[in-house]
Records
---
Amino acid sequence: MYDPHATWTRLPLAGVPNARELGGYPVPGGSTQFRRFVRSDSLNRATESDLRFLYEYGVRSVIDLRDPQEDEYAPDPSLGPDVVCFGSSLLNIDISDMERIEREIAAGTPDAVQFYRMMLNNRRSLREIFTFIADAPEGTVLFHCTVGKDRTGVISMLLMDLAGCDLWDIVGNYVQTRANLMRHPHLLARWAEVRDTPLQDLVDSPARTIEATYAMVHEGGRSCEDFLLECGVDAAALARVRARLVEP
């Protein structure tokens, strides 16, 4: 049941077990605010109660980071007539062809970190996403991919970094994904299959993956703001995104 006075880290949703807050992390001069951003897995398994909870929680914008094939296969349900939905495919490959991707990972080309580099190199999509966030209507912004780990993890890292969170809070936020995803019975079974194989990182959320991705953003002493400016997001938009996450 929705409680407007409660504060959650992981939202109590039956069909969206990886939905969680970006609020509550220390930043210089304060902390990230609750009910500003929620990261999650796909909403296609959300129950009616889940959808009602998210709307009452304040979600008024949904960003879908999946490719069109994923969205067509498992479309998001509507949260309400006044909820704005936006899509931008962050990983420009057909992720629905998982057999081919798994064969390539098993062969070592590419590995998980290379997938994350591909996302950081998708500057058009990053520009679209952060520009949308800067101009999104008042209310909570929910963003998701399929399981809420990789594409969602990159956007979470960039938002937290932009807000002033330190590396270890960013890592802590990322690694929580595996524990949440194990609530999916099919992912728990998949984890048992791939454990200690080259495919493990496809299911897991190891600290080394997001640490390496963070290092890519900060190559040559570059800040997260510098990186997003290079992606084409203007400075005023970045200031609005940061304010949305940190200002009371």
Note: The longest strand covers residues 59-64.
---
Amino acid sequence: MMKQVRLITLTLLLGFCGIANAGVIVLEGNYMGKNIFVKNPFGGAGVGFCVFEVTINGKLSPDEVNQSAFEIDFANQGLRIGDKLIVNIKHKDDCAPEVLNPEVLKPKSTFNNSKASVSREGVFGWTVDNENGKLDYIIEQFRWNKWVKVGEVSGNGTPGVHNYEFKITPHSGENKFRGKQVDYTGKPRYTKMSKYTSSSPEITLGGDKFKGSINFKGGATMFELYDRYGTIVKRGYGQTVDIMGLQKGTYYISFDNDTKTVQFK
């Protein structure tokens, strides 16, 4: 009986403190130098505002929340650009505050690219500054009349000058390389393009009709194999392509810096 009384008392205390029947909005991201703005309606009962507490990385925010709109100010939190942020906005469960600009915690591509080049050793390098968000650089090579992803390099994400490198695998003849970042907007931003002429021998096919496998002459190569509808059925890197299990008919294979029509028997 005593345990039941204690449980009821605890529940009543939590209710008076505004903790029971509460909701929370959790924002996770990185500090990008901007603050969060929150639209804060009245509670469902019309008494008091919806939000009653905000924490930043587990610490209580000193910002005044008892108003129809307020700002979560990160200026006095000792944060550096790129630092991890977890913001908890605690509110009554009969109302819903609105975060007006949650995107400010997401990394944004802002880099300036001063130069890009490919060394004699086959290393694509580029120099940037003004990074304000940790994003990967996607490395692309121009092959088969399109840009093809060939790798990734992690971006530093902080202001200052940064140098990056990526070991390339060139095809025969002239090559083109570039890097790009894609942030929350979905719009890519590109580095300068760099050209590189390879002395590697040209890769060829030993005919146009195959059964069981396709063998490249001249060495290993990146390849993409398409069916007659243009759907990729295989891609990879090597000197042999296993085609066991594929139906007979017309296919298209892109390799080295060429594309050929082939028949599977």
Note: The chain has three domains: 2-105, 112-198, 204-264.
---
Amino acid sequence: MRILWIDPIGTDMFSGDMLNILNSAKRAETTVDVVALPEDRPKHLEYHAYEGLVVGDITRITYEARKEYDAVVIGCFYDVGLREAREVSGKAIVTAPCQSATAIASNLGNTFSVLVGRRKWIPKMRENVHLYGHGHKMVSMLPLELGVHDFQTDHDLTRNRLLSTGRKAVEEDGAEVLILGCTAEYGFNRQMQDELGVPVIDAVTAPFKYAEFLAEMAANFGWYPSRKWGSEAPPKEELEAWGLFDEPAPAGTRLSGEKIPA
């Protein structure tokens, strides 16, 4: 099984860590590649305008990857470009963090809270949780007041904010499960679980393992993405006539292998 992780930003500062996390989590028979966007793309997606600039890139990368990979994971908790990528993925599974994490959390407890970086993120992320059908289980979505590039800068600060905010979510809001609402919040969930006594869903591992699971279901039972009605793919004749995917997909750093040195 082959899985592609798309780091949908114009920097590879997280890519090595992502590859190492995924290689630690994968099944023995799974191989993983990580691709970032070109350097002239936004370095984070905290603004919807930035999202709009990279949706086309995500769609083109997915279209190009559809024959080579069993699954594609979009590495942003906004689930940016998820619908668009799924339309052109052929038989390849496409997952993203918010939908995957909330589905997993809903099977581990009656309620959950999402710990996000900034208040700015909450409206769209809350809308997505409701769109996915899990809004009735979400008791809170709490900001840490940290941006994407802050989480891995001062680990003590990030850990303290995650623990204090997570404790509030559990003890005051009644969360039975916590979700880390940004892929850059990696590396803290196990300590949080030990100290807070609830499952803490990591936003990198969740969509990757969900993709691995769904790809196995597709291979074993033929449960490939539907192409009926709302899931209909663009007509091949139009794509060819208009030359929409004739050029190579824009991509920056691409990493593969078992481990990237720290």
Note: The mean pLDDT is 97.
